């Protein structure tokens, strides 16, 4: 067994660090207000929409990332990507998360950037959507969840009815990441079958300016970057047959095949975040003295750090094992879910331990811990809640 990191992961991480130093850090210094303790107030306007100055930074990083070859790195070469495998990508993701909050989170485009689900596009659709997306000219969003159906998304109420050579979409989606800014949405609607059928759901490509499609309220969330998630409304939204992505009725399976990779990204990122918080906490514990001794010399503190270090190493090996199985072409659904479950819990534990070790200082907005504490909570909810991961693991076992 070889536990060393693949040389490609080491090289990409090094290149990304140089890129951050040269291209991203100057922007962070120039626009410090978007990262400081009042960052939330500055990022959005009174309607909770991100302000043009902030959107311009996101776009600038996207353009630079495309030029440097990072943007579509995980996509196949046939569509202009870097063909980086899932293990390498996850390790790089871990390293990228092991740093303070910053604009580097926009380098890969997040939920608005290139995604393998768009490989379902035919050649015309690739020309219209996928290639401009790879070039950073447009962004997308993934619209599956609805007000009444999240974990059971295939019970969706959104329907698309055929009318001549058009489809008419009616329904509502919620919590859609990048929804307010996407140039087009990947929208899932029932086109046949009964509520809850896995088959009969179709994926559509819907332009942001398509009549009948509107961005509703922008959600105000507990953590993450404000102004990112929105409701989407479809009211007699007519699209042509050429907007069906993949096969009619196969949209849900397409969506699910994408979600597995997303779960590993979350696990890897959680390990990076936890490692960063552990390193901060160790440093603080060495220097902070109470009762004439550094708190690091108290078992009450050092055992918390030891436990966290052990948990980080467990999840690191678990996500890498899951990713390795995927690169071998083996079924890894159980391991993906295990890694996502434990990774999400780890990020929350790390934020909690870091806050405890830092005492009052950790609770204040001057340090990044308070922000991490809020933002890590969502990792246990999106891309399948803890309970849904356990359901998947149990189904694989039984
Ligand atoms: C910040 C954020 C960003 C998001 N971005 C997107 C996006 O871009 N696109 C998108 O489509 N969706 C997105 N989502 C939606 C997300 O995927 C859902 O919130 C998630 O799948 C859970 O669905 P729900 O909120 O409807 O909760 P529900 O499904 O209603 O679950 C409520 C509770 O019941 C539990 N539960 C449900 N079913 C079971 C069961 N069978 N057994 C045991 N427990 C169960 C859940 O674990 C949870 O604790 C986002 C959500 C958030 C918070």
Automatic annotation (TrEMBL):
Determine if Nucleus is one of this entry's keywords: no
Keywords (A to Z) from UniProt: FAD, Flavoprotein, Oxidoreductase
> Can you give the residue ranges of the Acyl-CoA dehydrogenase/oxidase C-terminal domain?
249-397
Q: Which domain of life is it from?
A: Archaea
**Sections of the chain in a coiled coil:** none
Cofactors: FAD
Q: Does the keyword Oxidoreductase apply?
A: yes
Q: Residue ranges of the Acyl-CoA dehydrogenase/oxidase N-terminal domain? A: 12-137
Q: Name one GO molecular function term.
A: acyl-CoA dehydrogenase activity
Residue ranges annotated for the Acyl-CoA oxidase/dehydrogenase middle domain, each copy included: 141-237
InterPro entries annotated for this entry? Acyl-CoA_Oxase/DH_mid-dom, Acyl-CoA_Oxase/DH_mid-dom_sf, AcylCo_DH-like_C, AcylCo_DH/oxidase_C, AcylCoA_DH/ox_N, AcylCoA_DH/ox_N_sf, AcylCoA_DH/oxidase_NM_dom_sf
Q: One Pfam family this chain carries? A: Acyl-CoA_dh_M
Query: What does the sequence similarity comment in the record state about its family?
Result: Belongs to the acyl-CoA dehydrogenase family.
Please state what the protein is called.
Acyl-CoA dehydrogenase
Which species expresses this protein natively? Natrarchaeobaculum aegyptiacum
């Amino acid at each position: 067994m070889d536990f060393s990191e693949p040389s490609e992961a080491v090289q990409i991480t090094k290149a990304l660090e140089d890129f951050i130093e040269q291209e991203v850090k100057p922007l962070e210094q120039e626009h410090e207000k978007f990262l400081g303790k009042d960052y939330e107030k500055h990022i959005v306007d009174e309607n909770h929409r991100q302000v043009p100055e902030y959107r311009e930074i996101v776009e600038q990083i996207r353009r630079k990332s495309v030029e440097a070859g990072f943007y579509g790195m995980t996509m196949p070469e046939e569509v202009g990507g870097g063909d980086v495998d899932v293990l390498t990508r996850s390790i790089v993701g871990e390293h990228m998360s092991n740093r303070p909050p910053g604009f580097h989170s926009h380098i890969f485009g997040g939920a608005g950037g290139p995604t393998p689900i768009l490989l379902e596009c035919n050649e015309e659709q690739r020309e219209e959507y996928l290639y401009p997306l790879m070039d950073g000219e447009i962004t997308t969003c993934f619209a599956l969840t609805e007000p009444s159906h999240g974990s059971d998304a295939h019970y969706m109420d959104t329907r698309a009815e055929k009318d001549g050579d058009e489809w008419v979409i009616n329904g509502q989606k919620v919590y859609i990441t990048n929804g307010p800014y996407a140039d087009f949405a990947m929208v899932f609607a029932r086109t046949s079958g009964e509520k809850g059928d896995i088959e009969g759901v179709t994926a559509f490509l819907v332009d942001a300016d398509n009549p009948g499609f509107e961005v509703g309220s922008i959600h105000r969330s507990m953590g993450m970057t404000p102004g990112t998630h929105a409701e989407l409304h479809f009211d007699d939204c007519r699209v042509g047959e050429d907007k069906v992505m993949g096969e009619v009725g196969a949209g849900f399976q397409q969506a699910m095949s994408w979600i597995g990779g997303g779960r590993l990204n979350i696990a890897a990122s959680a390990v990076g975040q936890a490692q960063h918080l552990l390193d901060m906490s160790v440093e603080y514990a060495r220097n902070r003295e109470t009762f004439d001794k550094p708190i690091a010399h108290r078992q009450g503190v050092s055992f918390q750090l030891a436990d966290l270090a052990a948990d980080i190493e467990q999840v690191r090996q678990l996500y890498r094992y899951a990713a390795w199985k995927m690169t071998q072409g083996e079924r890894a659904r159980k391991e993906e879910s295990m890694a996502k479950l434990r990774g999400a819990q780890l990020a929350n534990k790390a934020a909690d331990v870091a806050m405890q070790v830092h005492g009052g200082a950790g609770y204040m907005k001057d340090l990044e811990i308070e922000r991490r504490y809020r933002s890590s909570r969502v990792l246990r909810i999106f891309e399948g809640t803890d309970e849904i991961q356990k359901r998947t693991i149990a189904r694989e076992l039984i």
